[in-house]
Amino acid sequence: MEKMIQDYSKYTEEDSKVWNTLFERQKKNLPGKANAEYLNCLTQLNDVLNPDEIVNFDKLNEYLIAENGWSVVVVPGLIPVADFFKLLSEKKFCSSTWLRKMDQLDYLEEPDMFHDIFGHIPLLMNADYARFVEEFGKLGVEYGHNKIVEKQLQRLYWFTVEFGLIKQDENTQIYGAGIISSAGETDHIFEDNVEVRPYMVDQVLDNDFITSEIQTRYYEIGSFEELFNSVGELEKNLKEEVNV
Q1: Which residue, 193, 41, 57, 236, is CA-closest to 127?
Q2: Is 47 helix (H, G, I), strand (E, B) or coil?
Q3: Range of the domain at 202
Q4: Terminal CA-CA length for the chain
Q5: What is the pLDDT of residues 88-99, one digit of tens each?
Q6: pLDDT by residue (tens digit) across 158-178?
Q7: Residue 3: inside a domain, yes or no?
Q8: CA dihedral over 244, 144, 124, 23, signed as positive or negative
Q9: How far is it, in rounded angstroms, from Cα 20 to Cα 83?
Q10: Contact criterion met (CB below 8 Å) for 238 and 139
Q11: Global pTM?
């Protein structure tokens, strides 16, 4: 995959306004809804990830690499699944460098930089969560050549990393990036027509999803330690599928 960079000089005044608007909106919307660990991680990253300036990948990577060995890699958008697995296995998270326009604040067909960075990066400061993402990538590299397994891994990623919920102090809270980066999704979680199920690997692997529709079913973990500990069960399921 050709190496790409973030050309920071190309960001416009509108880009800065979009970044600030999205960041400030979610910063106000998330307390009491997002998991406290995500909010703590976001605060920890404040010097390199804040509403006042569009995130600079060089500064962010310098901080991340020093703290936990992760880094952000620029991609043109959606990339082949095999490349995605490989990057995660190497503790590299993909991000585009483009931002939505002001008239696209509430809906995008393809994730932009705000989703990729604001939604995904903070929780990589949590050791259990980061280890889960890394091990997920390694399982993808090892078993993802099987098309059924590839689909199962996409489902698991969708219902955890993108749209996962967590129980905290008896309350359902958000940790999935697809929810955390979206004001509409954040508020939708707490509507009456939402079904929340306990996180069970075998059920998630069988649960398909449609990316273009708002979610009505979610899976809730008890802790990030539980999420990481589920890697063994995940691998067992994948092995069984490959060996059928």
Answers
A1: 41
A2: coil
A3: 8-242
A4: 32
A5: 999 999 999 999
A6: 999 999 999 988 899 999 999
A7: no
A8: negative
A9: 31
A10: yes
A11: 0.95
Residue 107 has pLDDT above 70, yes or no: yes
Confidence of residue 80 (pLDDT cuts 50, 70, 90): confident
- 21: domain CATH number? 1.10.800.10
Q: Is residue 233 a part of any domain in this protein?
A: yes
- For 69, the token pair is 């060995």
H-helix segments, the chain: 13-29, 36-44, 57-68, 81-89, 113-114, 120, 127-143, 147-157, 177-180, 183-188, 201-206, 224-229, 231-242
Residue 218 within a domain:
yes
195: region left, alpha or beta (phi > 0 left; psi from -120 to 50 alpha): beta
Q: Quick check: 241 and 201 in contact, CB under 8 A? A: no
Q: Judge residue 118's burial from the number of C-beta atoms within 10 Å of its C-beta, 0-12 exposed, 13-18 middle, 19 or more buried.
A: buried
Into how many domains does the chain fold?
1
| Amino acid identity for residue 10 in this structure | K
Mean of pLDDT values over 49-66: 98
In a domain, 1, yes or no: no
